[in-house]
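Title: Prediction job returns without error message
Component: structure pipeline
Severity: low
Priority: P3
Assignee: unassigned

Description:
Job completed but the reporter wants confirmation the result is attached to the right record. Sequence as submitted:
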Amino acid sequence: MSKSAFAAAFIFATTGLAFAGPDHDDLPAEVQARHGLMANYALNLGVLGDMAKGKTDYNAEVAGVAAANLAAFANTDQSLLWPADTDTMSIEGTRALPKIWDDRADFDAKEADMAKAAEMVASVAGTDLAALQGAMGGVGGACGACHKLYREPK
């Protein structure tokens, strides 16, 4: 199976994970979908991060797949995932702060920064460990820049 076919199958198979369980049954479909997106980010970032930190052995093929998945998710048009009134002040079960809708241009710019960082990781993840390690900082920075402003802490 090619990397792109594997990535497509992985996306299809794991997207349903966000919809399982009582935590999500009462949430709007858009919120369920964005929770699924974040879970997929976390899964693929975990694979890449564990390799970059030496917690697991570097595997070029697995790193390439995880990075391709990350880039695919980050380059998905997410506009349908963020309708008005799906923030922490409007519904329970989300950590999305109202500031997303107050400064949507900045939020969208941070989303674009994540896509660029994910593309960088995808371009080098399967080459060698040092390249993966060098690119991971950009992804971490992009995630953190958005989460610090737009996600409610636990």
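Comment from assignee: result matches the submitted record. The chain has a mean pLDDT of 89.
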